[in-house]
Amino acid sequence: MSAVTLLILGATGDLTGRYLLPALAELAGAGHLGDDIQIVGVGREPWDDEQFRSHAAERFERHAADLSPSARASVIQRLRYVGGDVTDPAVLGEAERGAGGPLVLYLALPPAVFAPAIQAAAALRLPAGSRIVVEKPFGTDLPSARALNELLRGHLPEASVFRMDHFLGKQTVQNILGLRFANRLFEPLWCAEHVAGVDIVWDETVALEGRAGYYDRAGALLDMVQNHLLQLMALVAMERPAGLGEQPLRDAKVDLFRAVRRLSPEEVAALTVRARYTADGNGADRVPDYAAEDGVDPARGTETFVEVTLFIDNPRWQGVPFRLRTGKALGADRREVVIRLRPTDRLPFGQAHEPGANTLTLAMDPDRLIADIALNGTGDPFDLEPARWQLDLAPQDLSAYSRLLLDVLTGDPALSIRGDEAEECWRIVEPVVDAWETGMSPLQTYPARSGGPAPRRV
Ligand code: BG6
To answer: How far apart, in whole angstroms, are the C-alpha atoms of residue 428 and residue 197?
Structure first.
C-alpha cells in the first residue's frame, strides 16, 4: 500500500468511535496498516493530539476490547488532531499540513454537512490519487442524491469516490458471485423457469438503541432497503459481469437496477407492508413502544418494519417476486437470501408425496449455505422426505467494514457504490415513499419480539 494520509472529518463523533477507529485497529492487527499511513482527526472539540488519543483509547475500550493492545496502540500512536469547523478550508489546510502523497477524506459527518465539507476540501487542491469516502444516506431522495453526485463529480473522478455500504464487505454477500457463476449445479437454474421467488430477509432483534436522531427520519425503507437489501438483490439477480473490476461489476448492477419495475400506487398498496413495533416485556427486560422511545416523534409515522415485493422486467426474471423484508425488535435474528425453486412434476411419486420446500438459503451471521431438498430417506423407499444439506463457512477474517476500508486505503472502488447505482436505488424506492405519503399501505403495528406483521401473499 502506498503512503496516504487519512483525514477523518467528524473525528469525535459516534461513527468514528464505533466503527472507523476499531476498523483501523483491526487492519493494523492483521498487518494491513503500513507505517506510511497517517491519520488526522478533525472535529469540533478544541482538543490537542493527546486528548484525541485518550478519546480513541476510551473508544477502543468500549467498541474494540477484543483487539490486541498492540493493534490499538499502532493506531493511537499515529493519530493527530485539528480542532475546528470541517467546512472551513483553513481548518482542513491545517489538517493536511505535512501530508505526503494522496489524501483520503473520510466524511464521518451528518449528511447536512457533506456539501460544505466537500466544497472546503476541494479548496485544498487535492493531490493526484486522493479519494473521498461518504457513508449512507447518499441523499435523502432522488434529486438530493443527484445533487450530491454532481458536487462530488465536480471535484474528483468517479473512481475516487467511495460510497460505503458495509454489506458489500460481508463474505457471504461476495460468495453470491462464486456460487452463481462458478457452479453448474446452480448457474443454469438461476432464472424464472426454475425459481418461483426470492426472499431477501434481514430480521433484527435489536430495537432503536438510542439512534432516534437518525432513524426516526429514515425508517426501515431508507435505512435498509434503499441501500443494503437492493445491493443483495442486485448481486443475486444481475447478469454475469464481464469481469470483477470496478467497471464491469458496477455496470452489471446498474443494468439490473434499471430493469426493476417502479411500483404504481396500487402496487405499493398490494405489495408493501409497513409497520412499527409496540412494547413487550417488563422491568429491565422491557422493549418500549417505538412511539414512546426518547427522541421519536410518533406523528412522523416512521416504520421499523418493511416488506416490499419487487419485480424485474427482463427475460431472466419475468414474473418472479423478489420479497425484501427487514425489521427491528423482532423475535429472532434472521439474515438470509432464500431462493425458492419451483416444484418438479414428481411423476413417479404421485401428488400425495409432498416433500416440503425445495430451497437454497444463503445465511449470514453465521455464514451458511443450506439446501433443502427431497430424498427417499428411510422407511418406505418410494416415499419422499425432506432433507437438509448444510455447509458452515469459516468466520470471515476481517470484519465487513474493515475489508471495505482496506479497499479505500488501497484505492480499489469495486465494492463501493457508484453514483449511478445510488440514483437507481432511489428511483426504485421513490414511488414507495410517495405512495406511502398519500396513505397507501397504512402503518400497522407488531408487538416487539414477535414474528412481525403477516407477509403479503403475492
Ligand atoms: C446499518 C443500519 O447500516 O446496518 C442498521 O443503519 C442495521 O439499522 C445495520 O442494524 C445492519 O447491519 P449488520 O451488519 O449489523 O447486520
So the answer is: 19
Closest CA to 137 of 249, 60, 226, 241: 226
Cα of 429 to ligand 1 centre, how many Å? Answer: 18
| CA distances in angstroms from 448 to 128, 152, 222, 279, listed in the order given | 51, 41, 21, 6
Sign of CA dihedral 282, 285, 288, 293: positive
173, three cell numbers: 454477500
Rounded to a whole number of angstroms, the CA Rg of the chain reads 24
**What's the one-letter identity of residue 239?**
E
CA 374/CA 388 separation, integer angstroms: 8
Half-sphere exposure of 234 (CA within 13 A, CB side): 29
* Pairing between β-strand 37-43 and β-strand 4-9 as defined by DSSP bridges: parallel
Amino acid at 150: E
For ligand 1, the distance from its centroid to the CA atom of residue 142, given in whole angstroms, is 22
Q: Is 223 in the pocket of ligand 1 (CB under 6 A)?
A: yes
User: How far is residue 69's CA from residue 28's CA, in Å, rounded to a whole number?
Assistant: 11
Residue-wise pLDDT tens digits, 219-256:
999 999 999 999 999 999 999 999 999 999 999 999 99
Total residues belonging to the chain: 458
pLDDT at 354 over 80: no
Ligand 1 neighbour 204 (Cβ under 6 A): yes
Location of C-alpha cell 474494540: 64
**pTM of the shown model:** 0.95
Distance CA 306, CA 287 (A): 19
Measure the CA–CA gap between 15 and 219, rounded to whole angstroms.
Answer: 19
Sign of the CA dihedral running 458, 170, 416, 274: positive
> pLDDT-derived band of residue 270, with 50, 70 and 90 as boundaries?
very high
Q: From the candidates 55, 194, 228, 353, which is the catalytic residue?
A: 228
For residue 277, the surrounding DSSP H or E stretch is: strand 272-278
Angstrom distances, CA of residue 252 to CA of 123, 138, 243, 337: 35, 20, 10, 19
Task: Please tell me if the CB atom of residue 336 comes closer than 6 angstroms to any atom of ligand 1.
Answer: no
| Complete domains list, the chain, with CATH | 5-135 (3.40.50.720), 168-396+417-447 (3.30.360.10)
How many Cβ atoms are within 10 Å of 15's Cβ, its own excluded? 17
